[in-house]
Structure formats: structure tokens, C-alpha cells
Specification:
831 residues; alpha+beta; Phosphorylase Kinase, domain 1; Transferase(Phosphotransferase), domain 1; Rossmann fold; 6 domains; 17 strands
Length: 831
């Protein structure tokens, strides 16, 4: 199709010229003409005029293409409001007016601190208007007019906008006209999303004129600009534009006229934010550009996912998915020439090794961290495999009893693509030695090129070596590497450790890769991650039915689902036992299998003595196993051996200081010890690391309840149930709070969970008893705890420690004491 203006040849499928942006089709001209018709506001209203018999006009606040806004007084309710009068062009069309009415009613149902409250949709003569809360402050657009926002301020405002959108999307409302002018910022820095006048209820039929495209052009998503059907992802695009604007002070898509802007949105890529403001981190730029993906399927699929990334970045943590999108680049001060295989390389390696031995210190180094290895496979999809190799090296080193401290994977992955020097990292992790290197795939072989540094007080090379094995022999290679590193650190292996590393079995490469994926999902403990983990472990067993780690993984998935109250404990116990028994039959020295068996014995079988023995065996096999130590700390609390529990939890944090699950479970132990303030600190640290961690949310719920901070406790309780994807419970709590405050919300949560249980879908009775106890419903709480005894609920051991919501509500009741004796006879657990 030839452009009538510049004669450029365009594809027939396009609506706008690819060179000059002139509209080529009737639909494009219609979309362009509409934006011009929406600039005729209704006539001005004089000061002190009375509208609809109850609103007294105070002053005009502003006007634009979507109408005039006035400050007014609601003379009946004695409150200040904002009245937005809509353009006649919209309200004179019956179907459009009807749509505005329906959507204003839907928006009025939204109740969130980051959404401007809509009171009503009404009419004064020929003029339709929306009544909403009046907000003192300035628009974000005006704030940006003064220049780009500081990073901290931009993130703070962005997170609030995202939280408001998340609430709207959760209630089925899409804004469709999000822009900086539609966000108000108060003097205290609170952001409120305004003007859901263009909002569309998800799933509802769009009532509008054929060919009409509504919204502000510069913030339109590509699908919105094309006049296509839109969903909540159009708001994610517009939010990306606002983010870009806050950080850079400029809009990402520009043009001299609307057709040119639309052409830019459809065809052009925005300029790098770092070119406009150099101090914006690349990780944050990646969030913006993912939100601005032209294909909706490549964008963030939920505003909650984008919010999680913003929260992590604000806490100084770069999520794994963002790290994958960043180019791997390290500063030259960190970069070391990796030595390649071959005669010349071998000679250099020998020289470096000899010099290292001559200059090495005599004393053993007993603390080490393996930094994330670099993917040199040539395939970005192999990142998970390379990360798994990092974890395997950590796991093998963690089995060496002579190494006092081996930092766990979750923590070291925070240093992926870091610009920090080795001494800086060593000081932050409190270790002496660091390992770094690369992973290559050479045909069916795996090649690791590694260097080990004594990092303090400054870098000194201890080892530079290349290892290469067939994919089936990777476990033997890791054992060889662990022995070599121990030797260079002057750490002596025990006879059992020597034997274990030498006797490593072969593995099926596909099964091994699947298990690496499965374990990374298991630790997150969300329903979706547990499902994903099971899929990977099942794939591993299909490849190799005799793979001990795959059997272990299946047992861990069942234990995890039981722990989160998602399946009946009897089923978990019955199904998990065969997997774990088989795993130990295949390899009784596998620490993960011993750890899983410890969990089953403790929480599914209430065999505390057997559980403790399995935990101690796990720690014997893998002294630096943070997860085993922190779960063991919970068992020690159940046995009321609080000093030992504190020591194990503290040790776990030393080994994995940035792992949200370790922080959350240790915080649980702190509650049992009565250390509420410490529990709050750990719970909040966990959420800074992983904002949707259900364990951290439930810990904070319980702790804040015990500290009598009920409003904050309610927010954490809602977040906990939301993380478990129990939206009906969250909604019930909001209704319960309106009628009965905090206790009403807790009662509503418990009743909703009880109904789920009674309708045949399992939910742990213990977790139903908890909100009943929090609501003060002691009879109901005791009734559900008795049911927990009946089904042998895996969480029932947690009624034993001295401090909890249950102990607060029920400790003086003889029936509760009797239930405690049924979980743990007086003779059990004594040492």
C-alpha cells in the first residue's frame, strides 16, 4: 500500500505508514479523529453552583480531553470531593453512557490505599459526572516536569502504583488509561491511581463505536493502538511507559502528531534509559523494557510479578529472571583469564599451581563460597543447568566436615553479574576463599574451568584447573573437584568423605538436568512451584528409574504439599514413604534423602526421636546443609530445647544468609522461643528477599498478632492466603473486617476454610484452627485441633512449643493440654 504523502511502499496489513506515520486506512483515520473529538469539555460551571442537589462547586481543578474536574463540597456528608464531568460526546451516546455507569460502579467497589476512591456516577441535567475522593497533592506528571525522579523515590511510587493496579486486576478491573497525569502523589509520598473512567470490566462486552480507540495515545499499548481487544496486560504496558518517564524524565515513544506516535509504539524501540540517565541500574531498565514488550505474551503476565521484581530490586536483590536478561559483564578487576585446555594452557596452569603452592599459607582455610558459574555453552536456555552445576559444587563442598562454612546456593546467586571485587564479596559473606569459573558443553561432555582464590586480605590464586567429563560422569567430576579444592585449602577429608567422593555413581544426563530444575522449584514451596517440581522429578524418573535424587525429590514434593496444608497428611505419608525408602536403598549417604526422611518422620509420623536421628545423620553427611539445620531448629522447639534450636537456626543463617525460607523457618523458631521482635526482623528480611514467600507472611501474621498489632497482622494474613492462591479466603476476610474488625476477618477466614474442607477439598485442620483461635473462637479452634489429631495433621506438632496464637488462646484449657499429650507423650523427645 503506497503512502499518499511520502509514496513509501507499505505492507497491506498496516494501518499507518512505516516511514511518516500517516494513517492509511479508514480505521486508522477513525482512531485519529476520535482523539480530536474528545477535547470538547462540557460548559464551565460557576463557583458555588449546586450540583445534583448535594455538591457545592468550590473551584475548577483542571480540564483535559476526558472532561473537567472540580473541587466540591458534599453538603450532605460534609466532605470535600472531586467531581469529574465527562465530555458530551461520550455521555450523549446511550451505550457509551451505560458502559461508563457500569464501569464506574465497578471502580467504586475498589478499596485500596493506592486507588482514588470513587463514590458514585450521577447526572446533573445533561451533564454526567463521577464523584470521587479529593486528594491534596500534585500529579505525577507535574512532578516529572521538574526532572527525572531519584531512583529511590521512583521505585517507591512505582510499587504503590503497581499495588493499586494489582488490586484492580484482582477485582477484574482494567484501567486502560493509566498515565502519569492519572496518578496523584500526596505531600507524604503516597501515590493514588486516578480516573478509572476508561476502565473495562474483564470479560464484559466492550460497548463502543466500531473503530473507536480510547485512551491517551502516548501511553497506549500496541494492541490498544490497533483497536484490538485488550486485557490487563495493556495496563502493564502503560505502567512501563510511566516507569520509563519517571526514571528518564522523557516518554519512550514520541512524534510530532498522533499518527507518528502510534507508528513509534507499533514499530520502534525506546532509547536506553541509561543513555538518558546513567545512574539507572541495568536491572531496573530490564524491568521497564519487559513491561514494554510489544507482544503481550512476552510482557509480564501479571502486575504482581512486576511488583515482586520491583520490591526485590528496591531491597538490592536482582531476581534470577532479570539476571538472565542482563548481559553477562564483569569489571576487569574481577575478570581473570580462563585457562583453556591444551599444551600451552597446561603449562601455564602448572606454573600458577606451583607458585600458589610456594606462596600458600600453611593454615587451613575453613570457609568458602562458590560464585555463580558463567554460562559458556552458547545457549542461554542452559542457564538453569549452569546454575545447577554451581549448586552441585556447593553441595559437594558442603559435605566436607573440615569446612566450617560453605555458603549455600540461594545466597551466592545474589552475586550473579555483580560488579563487586572478590575481597568485597568475601568480606560480605564472611569467607576466606572464593571459587569462580565457567561451564562449557563440548559434544556430550561437560567442561568446567575453575579458579580458587584466597580472597582476604587481597586476591591470591590457589588453583586454576580445567575439568572435563562425559555428562554421565559429572558426579564423579564434582567429587574430584571437591577433593582438589580441599587439598589446596589444607583441609583434611575423613575416610568416609574420601570414599563417598570416589564412589560417585554415573547419572543419566537428562535425569540429572531435570532434578536440577525440580530442586530449584521445591525450595519455593508455592503450589505452582511444587507442581513444577513434581513434573521435573517425574521426567527424571522416566529417564532413570534408579536415580536416588529423583525419588528423593518426589518425596520432598509430597512433604512440601503436606507442610503447606494442600493434601491430607495420610496421603502424603503413604505416598512419600516408598519414594524415600527407595532413595535410601539406592544411596543411604545422600543428604537430601536423609533430610526428606527426617521431615516425614517428624511431621507426618510424629516420630520425634526418629526424626532427630535422621536430621543428625543429614548434618553428619553435609555439615553445611542450611535447610536441614533450620528445620532441625523447629524440631528442637517442638521438643522445647530452645537453646539448641537457637544455635541451629543461627548456624543455618550463617550458611545461607539471603535465603527467605531459611529466614522464615528460623523466625518461626523465634516465635516459639518468645523472641517476637527478632521474629519480625527476620520475617521482614525474608520478604525483602522474596516478597511472596508464604512462610514469611504467616510468621509475620502470628508475631504481629502476639504483639497486639492487629491491623498489620491482618495484612500479613491476607498476603499469606493470597500466596497460597486462596482468593476466596482473602475476599471473605475483607468482608469480615467491615462487619467485625480483626476478629471478624479471622472468623471469616476460618469459616471459609472450614467450608472448603467440608466440601471435600482438603485443607489442614490445624490451619483452620489457627484463625479460629485468633478470632477468640476457642470451641471451634479445639474442634478443629481434635480433627487434626484424627487425621494426624502434619502441623499438629506445632501446638507443643510455649509461644503461639494457639497457646495464647487455649493454654489454660484442659482439653488443649490433653491434645498436646496425644501429639507427644511425656516420655517422647527427652534427651
Amino acid at each position: 500500500m503506497k503512502c499518499p504523502k511520502c509514496q513509501f511502499d507499505n505492507p497491506n496489513v498496516t494501518n499507518f505508514c512505516g516511514k511518516c506515520g500517516v494513517p492509511l486506512t479508514a480505521d486508522a483515520r477513525m482512531a485519529d479523529s476520535l482523539t480530536k473529538t474528545l477535547v470538547t469539555p462540557p460548559p464551565a460551571i460557576s463557583k458555588d453552583a449546586i450540583i445534583a442537589g448535594k455538591y457545592k462547586i468550590i473551584e475548577e481543578l483542571g480540564r483535559g480531553g476526558m472532561g473537567i474536574v472540580y473541587k466540591a463540597e458534599d453538603i450532605r456528608l460534609k466532605r470535600t470531593v472531586a467531581l469529574k464531568f465527562l465530555p458530551p460526546e461520550l455521555t450523549h451516546i446511550p451505550e457509551v453512557k451505560d458502559r461508563f455507569m457500569r464501569e464506574a460502579q465497578a471502580a467504586a467497589a475498589l478499596d485500596h490505599p493506592n486507588i482514588c476512591t470513587v463514590y458514585e456516577f450521577d447526572q446533573a441535567g445533561e451533564n454526567a459526572f463521577i464523584s470521587m475522593a479529593f486528594i491534596e497533592g500534585q500529579s505525577l506528571r507535574k512532578r516529572i516536569d521538574s526532572g527525572p525522579l531519584k531512583l529511590e523515590e521512583a521505585l517507591k511510587i512505582a510499587m504503590q502504583i503497581a499495588e493499586g493496579l494489582q488490586e484492580a486486576h484482582r477485582n477484574g478491573i482494567v484501567h486502560r488509561d493509566l498515565k502519569s497525569a492519572n496518578v496523584m502523589v500526596t505531600a507524604r509520598g503516597q501515590a493514588k491511581v486516578m480516573d478509572f473512567g476508561l476502565a473495562k470490566t474483564m470479560g464484559a462486552t466492550l460497548v463502543t463505536r466500531e473503530g473507536t480507540t480510547m485512551g491517551t495515545v502516548t501511553y497506549m499499548s500496541p494492541e490498544q493502538a490497533r483497536g484490538e481487544k485488550v486485557d490487563h496486560r495493556t495496563d502493564i504496558w502503560s505502567f512501563g511507559v510511566v516507569l520509563y518517564e519517571m526514571l528518564s524524565g522523557e516518554l519512550p515513544f514520541k512524534g510530532e502528531h498522533e499518527q507518528a506516535i502510534i507508528h513509534s509504539i507499533l514499530k520502534e524501540s525506546p532509547r536506553s534509559i541509561k543513555d538518558l540517565k546513567a545512574d539507572v541500574p541495568a536491572s531496573i531498565e530490564q524491568v521497564v523494557f519487559r513491561a514494554l514488550e510489544k507482544n503481550p505474551d512476552k510482557r509480564y503476565q501479571r502486575i504482581g510479578d512486576l511488583l515482586d521484581d520491583l520490591r526485590s530490586l528496591a531491597a538490592g536483590i536482582v531476581p534470577d529472571e532479570i539476571q538472565v536478561r542482563l548481559r553477562r559483564a564483569k569489571l576487569t578487576k574481577r575478570k581473570r583469564a580462563i585457562l583453556y585446555a591444551g599444551a600451552a594452557g597446561s603449562a601455564v596452569i602448572a606454573i600458577i599451581a606451583a607458585l600458589s603452592l610456594l606462596s600458600g599459607r600453611a593454615a587451613a582455610i575453613d570457609s568458602i563460597a562458590v560464585l555463580p558459574l558463567e554460562n559458556r555453552t552458547g545457549d542461554a536456555k542452559q542457564d538453569y543447568y549452569v546454575d545447577g552445576v554451581t549448586e552441585e559444587l556447593i553441595g559437594h563442598l558442603a559435605q566436607i566436615s573440615g569446612l566450617r562454612r560453605v555458603i549455600s546456593r540461594t545466597t551466592v546467586m545474589r552475586y550473579k553479574d555483580t560488579h563487586k571485587s572478590l575481597p568485597e564479596i568475601a568480606r560480605e559473606l564472611n569467607v576466606d576463599a572464593l571459587v569462580e569459573g565457567t561451564v562449557h558443553r563440548v559434544g556430550e561432555n561437560v567442561r568446567l574451568q575453575l579458579q580458587v582464590f584466597d580472597a582476604l586480605p587481597e586476591e591470591r590464586n590457589l588453583l586454576a584447573e580445567t575439568y572435563e567429563r562425559a555428562g554421565t560422569d559429572v558426579l564423579m567430576m564434582y567429587g574430584e573437584i571437591a577433593r582438589a579444592i580441599a587439598g589446596r585449602l589444607h583441609v583434611k577429608l575423613t575416610a568416609e568423605e574420601e570414599t563417598r567422593f570416589v564412589k560417585a555413581r554415573q547419572v543419566d544426563p537428562e535425569a540429572y538436568a531435570a532434578c536440577l530444575q525440580g530442586m530449584s522449584h521445591w525450595y519455593k514451596l508455592t503450589p505452582a512451584d511444587l507442581d513444577a517440581a513434581q513434573g521435573y522429578f517425574e521426567s527424571a524418573l522416566e529417564e532413570d528409574p534408579n536415580y536416588a535424587l529423583a525419588h528423593t525429590g518426589m518425596g520432598l514434593v509430597l512433604f512440601g504439599r503436606a507442610q503447606m496444608g494442600l493434601i491430607p497428611p495420610g496421603k502424603a505419608r503413604e505416598d512419600a514413604r516408598p519414594f524415600l525408602s527407595r532413595a535410601l536403598e539406592l544411596d543411604d549417604s545422600l543428604p537430601e534423602a536423609q533430610f526428606a526422611m527426617a521431615g516425614v518422620k517428624t511431621w507426618l509420623e510424629w516420630d520425634f526421636e526418629g526424626g532427630e536421628a535422621a536430621f543428625l545423620r543429614t548434618i553428619e553427611l553435609k555439615p553445611s546443609y542450611a535447610m536441614a539445620r533450620v528445620y532441625y531448629s523447629n524440631l528442637l522447639c517442638i521438643l522445647k530445647r530452645y537453646d539448641e534450636a537457637a544455635a541451629q537456626g543461627k548456624r543455618a543463617l550463617e550458611l545461607d544468609p539471603l535465603n527467605s525460607l531459611v529466614m522464615g523457618i528460623y523466625a518461626n523458631s523465634m516465635i516459639f522461643m518468645g523472641r517476637y521482635d527478632d521474629a519480625v526482623v527476620q520475617g521482614r528480611k525474608a520478604l525483602r528477599t522474596s516478597p511472596n514467600d508464604p512462610i514469611a507472611h504467616t510468621i509475620l501474621w502470628e508475631t504481629l498478632h502476639l504483639k497486639r498489632q492487629y491491623n498489620e497482622a491482618l495484612g500479613e494474613a491476607k498476603a499469606f492466603y493470597a500466596a497460597l492462591e486462596l482468593t476466596p479466603v482473602v475476599e471473605a476476610m475483607s468482608r469480615g473486617y467491615e462487619s467485625g474488625g480483626y476478629r471478624g476477618a479471622m472468623r471469616a477466614a476460618a469459616e471459609t476454610l472450614a467450608a472448603i474442607f467440608q466440601q471435600g477439598a482438603y485443607f489442614a485442620p490445624f490451619m483452620i484452627a489457627y484463625p479460629y483461635a485468633a478470632a477468640g473462637e476457642t470451641e471451634k479452634a479445639l474442634e478443629w485441633l481434635a480433627k487434626g489429631i484424627e487425621v494426624r495433621d502434619q502441623n499438629m506438632p506445632y501446638i507443643l512449643p510455649d509461644h503461639s496464637i494457639l497457646q495464647e488462646a487455649l493454654s489454660g484449657d484442659p482439653r488443649f493440654q490433653a491434645l498436646m499429650r496425644r501429639v507427644k507423650p511425656e516420655s517422647a523427645g527427652k534427651k
